Amino acid sequence: MLRFFAKYKFFGIVLALLSVVIIFSIYSVLKPNPKLKVYQPADFNPEVVDSTLQHVKKYHTIANFSLVNQNGETVTQDNYKGKIYVADFFFTTCQTICPIMTENMVTLQEEFKLDQDVLLLSHSVTPEIDSVPRLKQYALEKGVDDSKWNLVTGDRKQIYDLARKSYLAVKDYPEGQQYDMIHTENFILVDSQRRIRGIYDGTNSEEIRKLLEDISVLKTER
Question: Where are the domains of the chain?
Fold first, then answer.
């Protein structure tokens, strides 16, 4: 009996290894790849969504835009065509959440420094204050990489509409002047098809780690 087992020991080992490979292959095929949700206006807190869009449950994308960056260059959706990017809203004189948000944007910049498929976009909510020279000074102080990250200013109504109707990232300020807005701490993850794929607290380190993970997941979808 022992001789019988010794004779077929090699074949038994091969069969066991083959079984493991087959089981692993079947598991890999059947296991679904992680995929991020595609967010629609109806998924957001109504406070940050324009009243005309609060009912929308599909087909939402970021609208076309034309703004000016820290170098005085025109930035449009074409600069982000086919790219994954993270967008937020800030202002250079903010002393509360903005410094933390900017610091975390710098973290993202460094993480994807060599990855040309991932970009950053920060919109000023006080465009009348945040001129091109002021944005440039801010960019230099914070270590902004011009090839990776645009800080943009421009027409207040356009920024307001982008914030309320596209990125869904600011609250209306009805008691202020027309198109006044209160920006949130949100970072918005946008895919190469201009769809929102994630919302994160830009002041929270755990949320930033989740954002990094989700960008990796999003890259596997492409």
Answer: 1-31, 41-221
